[in-house]
Write a structure and sequence with these properties.
Blueprint: E1 2-8, E2 13-18, H1 23-29, E3 38-44, E4 51-57, E5 61-68
Antiparallel strand pairs: 1-2, 1-5, 3-4
Length: 83
């Protein structure tokens, strides 16, 4: 399972679960961050668990990242500020 993290030019943030198997489609759309135009992404509705279409105004997105929710081996054994 993976999540899409969007960071907006106005300081907003959003997190959306990506449907299993759609990670590459979402990754391909991220090249549009900061550019003119809109796009749509398939995400998972956190209330129903069903698919939903997210419309994105790319010029309002400052940064985006896909985060895999699977912890790598040894995760949780780290120490430090961000452990």
């Amino acid at each position: 399972m993976a999540y899409l993290m969007l960071y907006g030019t106005g300081g907003w943030t959003q997190r959306w679960q990506i449907p299993v198997g759609d990670e590459e489609k979402v990754q391909a759309e991220l090249t549009r961050v900061g550019h003119e135009g809109t796009g749509h992404l398939e995400v998972v509705d956190s209330q129903t668990g069903g698919k939903a279409t997210l419309m994105v105004a790319w010029q309002a997105v400052a940064a985006a990242v896909i985060v895999d929710s699977e912890a790598p081996p040894g995760a949780g054994t780290s120490t430090g500020q961000y452990a």
